[in-house]
Structure to design on (156 residues):
């Protein structure tokens, strides 16, 4: 689940078979108690069955369903799915569900703390301070198992 305001991944999990019951549990885990958003934008996947829709309705979330074959209507989600594939999963051999969770967790930490976004004025979802050249030399910190790097200035 993606928060649109700062492009943050709010919740994720992995399964081989996403049933409507599993998806209903995920929405509950993502938004416990009274933290549910007002709207949920989703596509027309058959996995979102009656059990899922009942859970969303019980949480007082209004569903907004995109038109058929219209990925542009949920552009932020389509973009992050593409980024996950291009920047992470195309470069890693996944061994099992547990390994996929670890890789995705590392990628989402990179995505939130280091990856810049043009729509956020070249900032990260979790804003960081600008470091002037007087702070020191640029040092690279590997992330996502060395697949990506975070660059910061550090005093010598």
């Amino acid at each position: 689940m993606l928060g649109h305001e700062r492009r943050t991944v709010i919740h994720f999990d992995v399964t081989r078979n996403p049933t409507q019951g599993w998806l209903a549990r995920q929405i509950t885990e993502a938004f416990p108690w009274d933290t549910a958003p007002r709207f949920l934008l989703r596509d027309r996947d058959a996995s979102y069955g009656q059990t899922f829709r009942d859970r969303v309705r019980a949480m007082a979330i209004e569903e907004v369903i995109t038109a058929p074959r219209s990925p542009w209507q949920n552009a932020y989600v389509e973009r992050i799915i593409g980024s996950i594939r291009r920047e992470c999963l195309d470069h890693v051999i996944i061994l099992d569900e547990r390994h996929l969770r670890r890789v995705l967790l590392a990628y989402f930490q990179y995505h939130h703390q280091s990856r810049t976004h043009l729509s956020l004025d070249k900032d990260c979802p979790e804003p960081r301070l600008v470091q002037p050249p007087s702070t020191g030399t640029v040092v690279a910190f590997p992330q996502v198992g060395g697949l990506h790097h975070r660059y910061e200035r550090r005093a010598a």
In short: DSSP finds four helices and six strands in the chain. Helices lie at 20-30, 50-58, 75-87, 97-113. The mean pLDDT is 93. The domain at 1-78 is CATH 3.30.420.10 (Nucleotidyltransferase; domain 5).
